[in-house]
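Researcher: Re-running this chain for the archive, since the previous output was lost when a drive failed. Same request as before.
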Amino acid sequence: MTCWLSRLEPLSRTSPCNRCQDTPEIPDDLAAYAYLLGLYLGDGYIISKPRQHYLMITCTASWPGLVDAAEDAMRKVLPEPSISRLQRAGCVDVKSYTKHWVCLLPQHGPGKKHERTIALEPWQQEIVDAHPWGFIRGLIHSDGCRITNWTTRLVAGERKRYEYPRYFFTNKSDDIRKLFTNALDKFGVQWTTLARGSDPFNISIARKASVALMDAHVGPKH
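Model: Regenerated structure tokens:
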């Protein structure tokens, strides 16, 4: 009887996470990552504990396009994990289940974001520098809005109503607001800080040329 022995090569155990490779790499879809990073810094958080690992982005239910965009960005950054949507009163939670989100979003940590330091890793900053509008769009889609303000002015002796659009970004974290305004500065977008009492939580963009830039690259939620 002849016995044939053959060597079986081990199956590849390549991690689905770019950061968990032997040599850590950046995500494949940089534009999607920049947008998702903005969403996470605004309305996202990560649960990471035994048998429970997921990234969740909370979106207002009245903007289904935003819900779709959040899920699409998650799938492009990490295609393998399962994703679910949980409908709650007035909002939709988009969840992606994997332990690897803590590798890709190292800003995760104990406590609220505005009560701890938020700083980008060098590899994240490179992505934001390469795709700043995606990052800005993610921040606006999470903690920002486009509204129409109005005022009155005298025209030929008659007081008339005048409407104009503006963008707001509101976040309690000094670090996150600074990341936002640094990205705006790259394009010469003019912004001002508006305080709630003594708290400078609001960034306003109201100059016509700057609003036009934001409309071209960000636009209102939908």
